[in-house]
Design goal:
The complex is a heterodimer of chains A (232) and B (398).
Chain A (H helix, E strand, L loop, with lengths): L1 E12 L7 E12 L3 E5 L6 H8 L7 E6 L2 E2 L5 H11 E4 L11 H12 L3 H14 L15 H14 L4 E5 L7 H16 L3 E6 L2 H4 L4 E6 L2 E7 L6
Parallel strand pairs in A: 3-8, 3-9, 6-7, 7-8
Antiparallel strand pairs in A: 1-2, 1-4, 4-5, 9-10
Helix pairs in contact in A: 3-4, 3-5, 4-5, 5-6
Chain B lengths: L2 H14 L1 H39 L3 E8 L6 H10 L4 E6 L1 E4 L2 E3 L2 E2 L10 E5 L3 H4 L4 E4 L4 H5 L4 E4 L1 H8 L8 E4 L2 E9 L13 E5 L3 H4 L7 E6 L2 H18 L5 E7 H44 L1 H9 L4 H39 L7 H27 L3 H6 L2
Parallel strand pairs in B: 6-11, 8-10
Antiparallel strand pairs in B: 1-12, 1-13, 2-12, 3-6, 4-5, 4-9, 7-10, 8-11, 9-10
Helix pairs in contact in B: 1-11, 2-9, 2-11, 2-12, 9-10, 9-11, 9-12, 11-12
């Protein structure tokens, strides 16, 4: 079942000017539900732009993007934030937790924006924190936790809203190898439990943990390899 | 996102930066307190002034005429005043005798606090015209005037001085060497603001002949029925006296405290506006402080805004969050400002007027409401700026 369908997408900055930049130059990509896809590329290859579009943080200049069958490329700002809240869970390289909030509150935030009622939020938050093994640290602030723990809180935040797709942008980039492996293992587990995971990285070792590698260079897909059997 | 959530989030980010939030509030606190104290002090002085005049009685007209050529216009003037009976409640000549009063061994000469009492010569309507009410005995009657009765009614302060707690009715006192019988006592009316009005004695005006060796009065007090009637009495009296007195041989003066009160009211209103306005400017400066700090906050929290947007925060929810934050800072500052304003008003009232001054409730609520509106107005620009941030760019910020 198609989850993501990107059709001939372009992202062009300063179009028509001398300093025109084509971050994406006609990308078509289809990702099925339950896949674990790695998008790899050098810095400047357009992989971040691709992630921003796939994650509905940005819209393509040209082309169409369907997420869960909805045409995202024509959505307004308010509709996009609704989609992000409901369908996308982000995991960033720099964790991107809010420093003034506790682990619990950080995870809760996505649910608040989703409009989940206060009475139902506690169970969802604690359930997500338990899955990343941090239920006992729910009252800690990010500054009181290690990098690995912070990233696990970020994963819990992405999980809690039950998104259609989890976008992980260099999730191990700021972590040591051992912690990085743990995080990767967690993502794999989530995938095995049914979540669609898109991993954006420049690290081939990391990418090899996925089922499918999409290589992007100069704004176009140059390689799309299935490593393991299709999950559908 | 609900408003309750907005308030919780605002509370969190305000308490995350306690010192800064307090310093920002300080502008509002001082502004609100200044408005409350300034306006309350002006209102306090206005009230004090009003109480003074109200103890003297409102709707009073004084007419005063003096003939240089020695003509006696007493009867003409008195008769004319009495002829205004549709407009007036009472008329009395206003005579004075300057001298001390003795009762047995006690004399007003020995009273260093109030000095020589004012002894008034008036008609049976003197008390009505001057807002005196009787507490014991009887008032001066028309027969007392006609029969040259040597009777006197005492003001409360003078009675207290001469008689302490003794009943003065029927006692004989000496005024200018003449014996007078005390027939009544007036209630205290001046309070602490104007105690001198109660340090008085009133005798029938026919005693003018005995005390001052004179039969003429150039001074009358009229109590009019209403403030409109007061104006009418002034107009008519002025017309009558203009016709009666040749400016080469004499002059006259007609006036009412009503005009003074109106002028004083007007002056106080202006004063309230000016001082309140100046204090209002400090509130405005406080509001600009809010905008400044909110702009810094938005810049500092660009990344946080990006995160919030990435995980589903809409433009509207970010806008509301920052507006509520500005509103809460100003509202809290406003409430603290009221407390400071109340305290300041009490202290100022005690120091300046020696009375318990209370700021008016509508003024205080108005000041807080204004500061919240101010916060939301000045918070609008930073909040719009925050909500308009592109998530991709906001996330890139360090």
């Amino acid at each position: 079942m198609k989850l993501i369908e990107l059709i001939d997408a372009y992202k062009i900055y300063n179009e028509g000017f001398e300093n025109e930049v084509r971050a994406l130059a006609g990308v078509s990509l289809t990702i099925d539900k339950g896949e674990f896809v790695a998008i790899v590329g050098q810095s400047g290859s357009g992989k971040s732009t691709l992630m921003n579009i796939l994650g509905c943080l940005d819209v393509p200049t040209y082309g169409e993007y369907f997420l869960n069958g909805q045409d995202v490329s024509i959505m307004t700002d308010a509709e996009l934030s609704k989609i992000r809240s409901r369908d996308v869970g982000f995991i960033f390289q720099g964790f991107n937790l809010i420093g003034t909030l506790t682990a619990y509150e950080n995870v809760e935030l996505g649910l608040i924006y989703q409009g989940v009622r206060a009475s139902q939020r506690y169970d969802l938050v604690m359930d997500a924190l338990e899955r990343v093994g941090l239920a006992d640290r729910c009252n800690s602030r990010p500054s009181q936790m290690s990098g690995g723990q912070q990233q696990r809180v970020a994963i819990a935040r992405a999980l809690a809203t039950r998104p259609s797709v989890i976008m992980a942008d260099e999730p191990t980039g700021a972590l040591d190898t051992k912690t990085g492996e743990q995080i990767l293992g967690l993502l794999k587990t989530l995938n095995e439990e049914g979540a669609t995971v898109i991993l954006i990285t420049h690290n081939m070792d990391l990418a090899c943990a996925s089922d499918r590698i999409v290589r992007i260079s100069d704004g176009i897909i140059v390689e799309d390899n299935l490593l393991r059997g299709a999950m559908t | 996102m609900s408003f309750t959530q907005g308030f919780k989030m605002a509370g969190k980010s305000i308490s995350a930066n306690k010192v800064r939030s307090f310093l920002t509030m300080l502008g509002i606190i001082i502004g609100v307190a200044a408005v409350i104290i300034m306006v309350s002090v002006v209102q306090g002085s206005n009230r004090q002034w009003k109480e003074y005049y109200e103890s003297m009685g409102t709707n009073r007209v004084n007419v005063w005429a003096n003939m240089w050529n020695g003509d006696d216009i007493t009867d003409d003037l008195y008769d004319y005043c009495l002829s205004l009976k549709d407009l007036v409640i009472g008329v009395t000549p206003n005579g004075y005798y300057y001298g001390n009063i003795k009762y047995q061994s006690k004399s007003t000469e020995g009273n260093y606090e109030y000095g020589t009492p004012s002894i008034a010569l008036g008609s049976d309507l003197y008390s009505v015209c001057n807002n005196f009410t009787l507490v014991s005995g009887r008032d001066i009657s028309w027969l007392d005037v006609q029969n040259y009765n040597q009777v006197v009614v005492l003001g409360s302060k003078l009675k207290d001085y001469l008689f302490d707690y003794k009943n003065p009715i029927g006692e004989k006192i000496s005024i200018g060497g003449h014996r007078f019988t005390v027939i009544g006592v007036y209630a205290e009316k001046g309070g602490t603001i104007n105690p001198y009005v109660d340090y008085t004695a009133v005798v029938p005006y026919s005693m003018n002949r005995l005390l001052n060796r004179s039969n003429t009065f150039g001074d009358f007090t009229i109590k009019a029925k209403s403030s409109e009637a007061t104006t009418e009495v002034i107009t008519r009296l002025t017309g009558f006296l203009t016709g009666l007195i040749d400016p080469n041989y004499g002059y006259f003066h007609v006036y009412s405290e009503n005009t003074w009160i109106e002028q004083e009211d007007e002056a106080n209103r202006m004063m309230s506006l000016v001082l309140g306005g100046i204090a209002g400017i400090s509130l405005l400066v406080g509001g600009i402080g809010i905008m400044n700090i909110m702009l810094v906050t938005v810049r500092e929290r660009t990344r946080e805004i990006g995160i919030r947007k990435a995980i589903g925060g809409s433009r509207r929810s970010i806008l509301i969050q920052f507006l509520i934050e500005a509103g809460v800072i100003c509202g809290t500052g406003g409430i603290l400002g009221i407390l400071l304003g109340f305290l300041g008003t009490l202290v100022a009232g005690k120091l300046i007027f020696d009375l318990i001054l209370m700021p008016s409730m509508p003024l205080s609520i108005g000041a807080v409401a204004f500061s919240v509106v101010l916060g939301i107005t000045f918070g609008m620009y930073p909040a719009v700026k925050a909500s308009a941030l592109q998530p991709v760019e906001a996330l890139r910020a360090e």
